[in-house]
Design goal:
Elements: E1 3-8, E2 15-20, E3 23-30, E4 36-41, E5 44-51, E6 57-62, E7 67-74, E8 80-85, E9 88-94, E10 101-106, E11 109-117, E12 120-125, H1 130-153
């Protein structure tokens, strides 16, 4: 079954709102001066906590039990990542040169696709797993932020 979500944000905002049929279903929010990003979708709440500067790794923490439930490892080129969650591996990657499309795949192919336009975008998911949907959205925003930091430093 296909699920569709839309997301939007504002210029310089640290919050991305996720909607389904014009109804707010969740968000992704970065705390100030923190390595933590909080996410919620359909009442499922998680925190993405990233550690490491040159070889960052993100821990996915379920806020209901406050326990780690997965992790995300990034490639050196910052264009791909692997999500380790529920004893499975999922591949995350950009699907076009402009980095406006990206997806999460398992061994059978793409299960979640994302598309962005400036401050809005769409998520099409073939899974109901809110954690995976949020993880794919988090990774894109994390890599985009890292790219901006590198560009600003040079």
């Amino acid at each position: 079954m296909e699920l569709q979500y839309n997301w939007k944000t504002k210029f310089f905002s640290k919050r991305f709102e996720i909607y389904q049929h014009e109804i707010l279903k969740g968000d992704l929010y970065k705390e100030n001066w923190s390595r933590k990003v909080n996410g919620e979708l359909n009442i499922r709440k998680v925190t993405f906590e990233t550690k490491g500067l040159f070889k960052p790794e993100t821990t996915i923490i379920d806020l209901q039990g406050e326990l780690p439930i997965g992790s995300i490892k990034y490639t050196n080129w910052k264009a791909k990542a692997t999500i380790f969650y529920q004893d499975k591996e999922y591949r995350w990657q950009f699907d076009n040169f402009l980095r406006s499309k990206w997806s999460i795949s398992d061994q059978n192919g793409a299960i979640i696709r994302y598309h962005s336009k400036a401050f809005t975008g769409m998520i099409v998911s073939y899974t109901r797993d809110e954690i995976l949907i949020l993880a794919g959205f988090f990774i894109r925003n994390f890599l985009k932020q890292r790219s901006a930091e590198v560009a600003a430093a040079t």
